[in-house]
Design a protein that fits this description.
By secondary structure, this protein is of the alpha+beta class. The chain has two helices and three strands; from the N terminus they run E-H-H-E-E. The chain has one domain (about 5-75).
Length: about 80
């Protein structure tokens, strides 16, 4: 199944919190749901939960990165 990379705008404190939760084996539910919603808005159907893959290291703009598997028949 195709993977879709999702970039979510964030602030530094939230991105640190999401990364810390990930390292503890926990989930930041708000950002995971935001990633799922972005996939739906793009016209794709997710096959499962978004997977947190990291944080960009931009000095000003920080983004959370998620990979989401989508059904192949929804890929344009």
């Amino acid at each position: 199944m195709p993977l879709l990379r999702v970039h979510l705008d964030s602030d530094r404190s939230t991105s640190r919190r999401v990364l810390q939760l990930h390292q503890q084996g926990k989930i930041h539910h708000e950002s995971r749901e935001a990633a799922r919603e972005q996939v739906w808005r793009r016209g794709h159907t997710p096959t499962g939960d978004p997977i947190f893959v990291g944080v960009t290291n931009g000095r000003r703009d920080v983004q959370l990165l998620y990979d989401v598997e989508v059904y192949s028949d929804t890929v344009p």
